[in-house]
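thread: overnight batch results

M.L. [08:02]
morning all. the overnight job finished for the chain we discussed friday. pasting input first so we're all looking at the same thing
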Amino acid sequence: MSSTTVLAIPLWGDLLAVGIGSLQGAMFAAGFRDRRLDLLGVAIIGVATGVGGGLLRDILLNVTPVALQSNWYLPSTVVAALLGMLLIRLFRRLDPLITFLDALTIGLFGAIGASKALALGLPEVPAVFVGVVSAVGGSILRDMLLNLPIALMHVGSLYAVAAGAGTIVLVVMIDLGVPLTVAAIVCVVVTTVIRLLAVRFGWSLPEQRELGRIPACAGRASPDARARRRPPSAPRPAPSRAIASTRASSAGGERA
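M.L. [08:03]
and the structure it wrote out:
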């Protein structure tokens, strides 16, 4: 491996990133009026969305979660979640800005997760997987806590695909000897551009569907084709009056 360092960002930058995730998680949960979440519920959703990706990343890497190594992460996510609930109308107006910042954090978390996996000696493909989990793990925990179908698994706006594309670029660039900082910047840019274009134009992966019927061989006709070529059978003669009257009387007896 050409680089074994971990992408490091200032503490305030990491707190801003997890805060944006918590803010979006609280705004998402507030949209379900039938859930009747209290303040504690909103705080839990905020914490899970903000630091969930990092928790899953560190659990996969078998290291102590970063969010549990400082006193700042959990309070920051709780405050951001409560602000998202109380000022939801204001943040709805700032939705384009929040979407842009969210796309940036996806790329940032993906770069941190992939570089950390590489630093711990994981191969390239597992490192990409860890990076994607780090980027989208918060939304998975959010949907699980709200007892909702996981949005990541349904037709959407290429959330995980954007993170995967960015982390693949980062891993390839690191293998080619590109400095980690440059590779991380490219990763964030690629992820952000794909995510924003997907939101703008409604891009999504094709919906699942089964393959069509396999066509029959040219020299061998299918059963349907043989049935179509078969001449129609002669019409059956109409039953005699005696038989028809017997059937009618028996049917009337059964209904009675």
